[in-house]
């Protein structure tokens, strides 16, 4: 791949002038509410900042070139790296994401889980401090503040995975669901994109096991867990993957 500039770096960003940012909204409309439900994101000031970065309300898909060197479907770590590094090395690349750019790690995995684990560790150390001769009194965890801090940190980190940053390095970004229509074409939002190489980096989604009675009780997945604002009196974690292990440790 050539190491020369692609020529589309630092072009004017394809933001719509007719739609406001999430952080500028006074009242979301029905379409916004439907999207927020699909994305599992309740709207507050921190999540609005997050969305302005990873799913901007006013983003417009670019006009595609005749052919891309590489198209990545899925804007988690693998898709972001594939599309951005192709562009940085002179290739013409595109990134397609229907949900939140940054994938699980930023939005519903590594970043929020580490924020909660840090609080759990601090609380545990404070409760054990007397064994070292340090007396701090009663340790009380302010759970709503803990979750607000998590959302604040996530929003602060979000620019590193932002749609605008990806576009700035030269990769075209499409917000929608990509569908292969032939060996070298993908359709997204009514446009057909032609490519030489494609990377499928769509990741995974939580699977709800067929446990009798589960559908009749409230349950969470990693897509909804980080929206909690009240501490559950008790919690059972099903699944010993990375996020399950981290959340079992956090309390």
Write the layout of secondary structure elements.
Elements: H1 30-39, H2 45-54, E1 68-73, H3 77-88, E2 93-97, H4 103-108, H5 110-127, H6 143-157, H7 163-168, E3 172-175, E4 179-182, E5 185-188, E6 191-200, H8 242-249
Parallel strand pairs: 1-2, 1-6, 2-3
Antiparallel strand pairs: 4-5, 5-6
Can you describe what's shown?
The protein is built from 8 helices and 6 strands, in the order ααβαβααααββββα. It is α/β, with parallel strands linked by helices. The chain has a 6-stranded mixed β-sheet. α2 (45-54) packs parallel to α6, α5 crosses α6 (143-157) and α5 packs parallel to α8 (242-249). The longest helix is centred in the middle third of the chain and has 18 residues, at 110-127. The chain is elongated and about 70 Å long. Residues 1-10 have low confidence and may be disordered.
The tally of beta strands, per DSSP, is: 6
Q: In angstroms, what separates the terminal alpha carbons? A: 49 Å
Number of contiguous helices: 8
Low-pLDDT residue intervals, each spanning 5 or more residues: 1-10
> How do the SSEs run, as a string of H and E?
HHEHEHHHHEEEEH
Radius of gyration using CA atoms only: 21 Å
Query: Roughly what percent helix?
Result: 25-40%
Structural class: alpha/beta
Mean pLDDT: 91
Biggest beta sheet summary: 6 strands, mixed
Shape: elongated
- Measured by DSSP, the beta-strand proportion falls in 5-15%
Give the strand line-up of the largest sheet: 3-2-1-6-5-4
């Amino acid at each position: 791949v050539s190491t020369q500039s692609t020529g589309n770096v630092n072009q004017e960003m394809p933001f719509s002038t007719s739609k406001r940012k999430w952080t500028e909204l006074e009242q979301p409309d029905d379409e916004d509410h439907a999207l927020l439900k699909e994305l599992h994101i309740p709207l507050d000031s921190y999540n609005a900042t997050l969305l302005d970065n990873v799913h901007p309300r006013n983003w417009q898909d670019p006009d595609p070139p005749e052919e891309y060197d590489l198209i990545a479907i899925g804007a988690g770590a693998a898709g972001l790296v594939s599309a951005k590094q192709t562009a940085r090395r002179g290739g013409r690349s595109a990134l397609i994401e229907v949900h939140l750019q940054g994938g699980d790690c930023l939005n519903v995995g590594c970043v929020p889980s580490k924020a909660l684990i840090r609080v759990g560790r601090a609380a545990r150390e404070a409760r054990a401090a007397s064994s070292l001769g340090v007396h701090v009194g009663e340790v009380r965890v302010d759970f709503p503040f803990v979750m607000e801090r998590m959302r604040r940190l996530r929003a602060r980190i979000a620019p590193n995975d932002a749609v605008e940053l990806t576009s700035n390095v030269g990769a075209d970004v499409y917000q929608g669901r990509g569908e292969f229509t032939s060996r070298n074409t993908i359709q997204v939002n009514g446009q057909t994109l032609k490519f030489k190489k494609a990377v499928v980096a769509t990741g995974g989604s939580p699977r709800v096991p067929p446990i009798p009675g589960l559908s009749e009780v409230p349950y969470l997945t990693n897509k909804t867990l980080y929206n909690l604002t009240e501490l559950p009196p008790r919690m059972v974690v099903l699944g010993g993957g990375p996020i399950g292990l981290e959340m079992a440790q956090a309390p």
